[in-house]
Design brief:
The complex is a heterotrimer of chains A (147), B (367) and C (200).
Chain A (H helix, E strand, L loop, with lengths): L4 H11 L16 H14 L4 H16 L6 E4 L2 E13 L7 E11 L5 E5 H10 L19
Antiparallel strand pairs in A: 1-2, 2-3, 3-4
Helix pairs in contact in A: 3-4
Chain B lengths: L1 H30 L3 E6 L3 E6 L4 H7 L18 E6 L14 H5 L2 E3 L9 E4 L2 H5 L1 E14 L2 E10 L10 E6 L9 E6 L9 E7 L5 H8 L6 E8 L11 E6 L3 H13 L6 E7 L8 H10 L3 E7 L11 E2 L2 H8 L7 E5 L2 H13 L7 E4 L3
Parallel strand pairs in B: 1-5, 12-13, 12-16, 13-14, 14-15, 16-17
Antiparallel strand pairs in B: 1-2, 3-4, 3-5, 6-7, 6-11, 7-10, 8-9, 8-11
Helix pairs in contact in B: 8-9
Chain C lengths: L2 H16 L12 H6 L4 H33 L5 H23 L1 H7 L10 H12 L4 H29 L11 H16 L9
Helix pairs in contact in C: 1-7, 3-4, 3-6, 3-7, 4-5, 4-6, 6-7, 7-8
C-alpha cells in the first residue's frame, strides 16, 4: 500500500536507534500498521480496550513510584518496582510530549513471569495502540497485561 | 525503420534532459539562498550558506543548542530567540511556544530555515560551550551497574567548570545504534585536578549511551564531549547544606565536596545517600575521608532493604524517610538534590513539609 | 485563423469549463486531493491556486510540445509520456517556488503538492485539449477555466465540510464517505447547467 511520507518517516524512526538503542521493532519485519492492527484485534478479543490497559499500567506505576525503587505489593500475587534514569524520551510519532525514563517492573510470584514497561510504552499503548514489534526489548504481549 | 525507433527515443530523451537541466538551473536561482550572516548575541557573526535549518547551522559552527529529537520538531528543546529575519511561524512550532515566547520571537531552531540574514539571541552560557576531544584512560567498577570513567582532555587540554555542571557525551554510531547521540552526565571529579574529568555512569537497560559506555568503550578509546552546561551549583551563602542524592546522582555532589575541601569551606553539610541494597553503596571510603577532611560534614547512607545476610546498622528505609526523621533545622538549610525525577519530587515535598522554602531548594534537572 | 472567432470560442470554452463541463464535478477527475485537502478553506485555497497555476501552464506547454514537436515528427502516440514528463517537471518547479515564497503553505500542503503531478485532472485537461483540437488561445481559456472550475469545486467542498465539522456523522461515513456523498450532490447540482452552453 502506498505510504505517505509521514508513515514512512515514522517507520524509519521506529526501526532506527535514534530514540532508544535497538529501536522499537525488534526482529519484526511487518509494517507498523500491521503490527498495530493485529495487537488491537488481540486486545478486543480479550474483551478490553487499550485505554483500560494503559490506565491499569499507570496505576501500578504510580503506586510503585512512591517506593523510590523498592518492591511494592500490587495484588495477591504480584509485586512491582520502578527504576528511573535521568533524561527523557520523546514519542516516535510527531506530536509534542516528553516521557520520563521510568521503567516499571512487575513480577508474578506464582509463575515467575516478569514484564516491564516504560512511561513511553504506556503512552504508545494508550494513544497509538502500539505494543512494539516482536523481539523488541520492551515489547509486551497484550495478553500479559490483562489481569 | 531504425530511424522510426531512434527519432522518438531521441526526442523524448532530449526533452526530458532539457527539462531536468532547466529544473537544476531554477533550483540554483530559486532554492539557493546564497551566503547569509547570522548575528549571535551581537558577539559573534557566522557567515553560512543559506538553505539549511538554524539548528544544523549552529551545530556546524560548534554552538551546541540542546536537542533530543534529531531536528524533527517534537522535543521543543532547541528554542532560540530570533530578533530579525525569521519568517512566519510554522504550524509545527506552535505547540511548543506559549504566548509570551511567540511575542518575543522565540522559535524552534530546527524548524527555522536560514534564507536571509538573521539576528538571534541565545543564553550566554551556550556561547561558552566548547567541544573537547578526550581519551578514556580509566574505567572503575563501582557497583554491579555503576562505573566511573576518567577522561583525559586532549584537545583542548583544560576545561573551566563549576562543580555541579554537566557535559554531553557523544555516543558514536555502533552495533546497537545507527546514529550519533548526545547524553548528559554530571562531572564528578575534583576541579583542582586539571587535564581530566571523571563521570559516574549507571547502566540504563537499553540505554543508547550507557550500553555503549559499558559494553563497547575501552581504555585508550577516543571520546568526544561538549560543555560545560548547567546552573546547578553551590550558593555563596553560609547556610547549612543538605545533600540528597542516590546512585549516579552522587556525581555533582562529589565534585562539590572536593571543591569545598580545596577552598576550606566551613559550611556545615550532611549528605543523605539513598540505595536499595547494601551492595548498591559505593565510594563510601571517600565520603568517610571527607568527613574527617571537612570542617563539619556527615555522610548518611540510607539502605532501603538490607538483606538479612548483610549486616547493616545504619539508616534504613527510603532516603526521604531518613531525611524526615533526622533533619532538624530545615528552614535554615539549603538543599541540593540530584537524582531521578521521582526521588526529587518526593524529596522536595518532604523538605517543604519540614518547613524549607522553595527558593532554598536546588536540584539538577536534566529532564 | 480569425482572432475574433478564436477569442469568442475561448470565452465560451472558459465559461463552460467552469460550470457545465467542470472537470471535477462532471468528469470526476482529480478526486484524490479533492477529498484529501478539502477539510479547511485555507489549505484548499492554497492548493486550488497551485492547481490553477499548474493546469494553465501545463496545458499551454503541452500544446506547444504537441504541435511543434510531436506533430511534425508524427509521434502523436508519445503524448501520454511527454505530457506527464512536462507536468512532473513543472510541478517540481512550482514546489520550489511555493517553498521559497510561502513556507507556511508549503508545510500545510505537505504531500499534496507533489501529488499534483498525478492529479488526473491536469493530464486530463491536456488530453482533452488534444482530442478536441483546441487552438492556442482556446487552450488558454480551457486550461484557465478548468483550473478555476477545480478551484471552485474544492473551495465549495471545504466550505461545506467546515460547516459540517461539528455535526454528528455516522462513524462509517466520516471522512471520505460523507465527502463523496457531498461531491455527488454537488455534481447533481452542476448538471443543472448542462445545455446552458454548447461548447465544442
Amino acid at each position: 500500500m502506498k505510504e505517505s511520507p509521514q508513515a514512512r518517516k515514522l517507520e524509519e524512526i521506529l526501526r532506527s536507534s535514534q530514540l532508544v538503542a535497538g529501536g522499537f521493532m525488534g526482529y519484526d519485519t511487518r509494517p507498523v500498521s500491521e503490527i498495530i492492527e493485529s495487537d488491537c484485534a488481540e486486545v478486543s478479543r480479550l474483551g478490553q480496550t487499550v485505554e483500560q490497559i494503559a490506565e491499569r499500567m499507570r496505576l501500578i506505576t504510580e503506586k510503585a513510584k512512591q517506593r523510590l525503587g523498592c518492591w511494592t505489593e500490587i495484588d495477591a500475587s504480584r509485586r512491582a518496582r520502578v527504576d528511573e534514569a535521568k533524561g527523557f524520551l520523546v514519542c516516535p510519532w510527531s506530536h509534542p510530549g516528553r516521557f520520563a525514563k521510568r521503567v516499571t517492573i512487575v513480577t508474578t510470584a506464582a509463575t515467575g513471569q516478569t514484564i516491564r514497561w516504560s512511561d513511553l510504552n504506556i503512552h504508545m499503548i494508550a494513544e497509538h495502540c502500539f505494543f512494539e514489534g516482536r523481539g523488541s526489548a520492551f515489547r509486551i504481549e497484550p495478553g500479559e497485561l490483562v489481569f | 525503420m531504425v530511424s522510426a525507433v531512434l527519432i522518438p527515443v531521441i526526442v523524448v530523451s532530449s526533452i526530458g534532459a532539457g527539462l531536468a537541466a532547466v529544473l537544476v538551473a531554477c533550483e540554483h536561482f530559486i532554492a539557493a539562498y546564497g551566503p547569509c550572516d547570522v548575528n549571535v548575541n551581537n558577539r559573534r557573526t557566522l557567515n553560512v550558506q543559506g538553505g539549511k535549518d538554524l539548528l544544523s547551522v549552529l551545530t556546524a559552527e560548534k554552538i551546541f543548542i540542546p536537542s533530543a529529537c534529531g531536528g524533527r520538531g517534537t522535543c521543543g528543546l532547541c528554542k532560540v530567540k530570533v530578533n530579525q529575519g525569521a519568517g512566519p511561524l510554522l504550524p509545527t512550532e506552535e505547540p511548543y511556544l506559549d504566548e509570551d515566547e511567540k511575542k518575543s520571537g522565540v522559535r524552534l531552531s530546527c524548524q527555522v530555515k536560514v534564507r536571509n540574514d538573521l539576528k538571534i539571541e541565545i543564553p550566554d552560557e551556550l556561547l561558552a560551550v566548547r567541544e573537547y576531544v578526550c581519551r578514556c584512560d580509566q574505567i572503575v567498577d563501582l557497583t554491579h551497574d555503576m562505573k566511573q570513567f576518567r577522561l583525559e582532555l586532549r584537545e583542548p587540554e583544560k576545561i573551566d567548570y563549576v562543580p555541579g555542571q554537566y557535559i554531553q557525551l557523544l555516543t558514536p554510531a555502533y552495533e546497537k545504534s545507527g546514529e550519533e547521540v548526545y547524553r548528559a552526565y554530571s562531572i564528578s571529579s575534583d576541579p583542582a585536578v586539571e587535564g581530566a574529568i571523571e563521570l559516574i555512569i549507571r547502566l540504563v537497560p537499553n540505554g543508547i549511551c550507557t550500553t555503549y559506555c559499558f559494553e563497547y568503550l575501552d581504555t585508550g578509546d577516543e571520546v568526544r564531549i561538549n560543555g560545560p552546561y548547567g546552573d546547578f551549583r553551590l550558593s555563596e551563602s553560609d547556610a547549612p547544606i543538605v545533600f540528597i542524592a542516590g546512585g549516579s546522582g552522587m556525581a555533582p555532589i562529589k565534585s562539590m565536596l572536593h571543591h569545598m575541601k580545596n577552598t576550606n569551606n566551613k559550611r556545615s553539610a550532611v549528605y543523605y545517600f539513598g540505595a536499595n541494597k547494601v551492595g548498591d553503596l559505593f565510594l563510601v571510603d571517600l565520603m568517610r575521608r571527607f568527613e574527617s577532611d571537612l570542617a563539619d560534614f556527615r555522610f548518611v547512607p540510607v539502605v532501603a532493604e538490607a538483606e538479612s545476610a548483610e549486616s547493616w546498622d545504619g539508616e534504613t528505609g527510603l532516603v526521604t524517610e531518613a531525611v524526615e526523621r533526622n533533619l532538624k533545622n530545615a528552614p535554615r538549610c539549603e538543599a541540593y538534590l540530584c537524582g531521578s525525577p521521582g526521588m526529587i519530587d518526593a524529596a522536595v515535598s518532604v523538605l517543604q513539609k519540614l518547613g524549607m522554602s522553595d527558593d532554598r531548594i536546588f536540584y539538577d534537572k536534566f529532564a | 485563423m480569425n482572432i475574433e472567432i478564436e477569442l469568442s470560442r475561448a470565452l465560451v470554452v472558459f465559461v463552460s469549463a467552469i460550470f457545465t463541463q467542470n472537470i471535477l464535478l462532471a468528469y470526476f477527475l482529480g478526486l484524490c486531493p479533492f477529498i484529501g485537502v478539502s477539510r479547511e478553506i485555507k489549505t484548499a485555497f492554497g492548493l486550488g491556486l497551485a492547481v490553477i497555476f499548474v493546469m494553465t501552464s501545463t496545458s499551454l506547454l503541452n500544446w506547444l510540445a504537441y504541435h511543434y514537436v510531436l506533430e511534425p515528427l508524427g509521434l502523436h502516440f508519445f503524448r501520454f509520456i511527454l505530457f506527464i514528463v512536462i507536468i512532473a517537471a513543472f510541478v517540481q518547479f512550482t514546489e520550489m517556488v511555493v517553498d521559497r515564497f510561502s513556507p507556511v503553505l508549503y508545510q500545510n500542503l505537505g504531500v499534496f503538492l507533489p501529488l499534483i503531478t498525478v492529479n488526473c485532472a491536469i493530464l486530463g485537461a491536456s488530453l482533452f485539449m488534444v482530442i478536441r483540437d483546441y487552438g492556442f488561445i482556446v487552450t488558454i481559456g480551457y486550461g484557465l477555466g478548468s483550473g478555476i472550475g477545480w478551484f471552485l469545486a474544492i473551495i465549495a467542498m471545504a466550505g461545506i465540510r467546515q460547516k459540517l465539522a461539528n455535526d454528528r456523522i455516522p462513524r462509517g461515513l466520516q471522512g471520505a464517505g460523507i465527502t463523496l456523498i457531498i461531491a455527488g450532490i454537488m455534481a447533481l447540482a452542476f448538471t443543472g447547467f448542462t445545455g446552458v452552453l454548447q461548447a465544442r
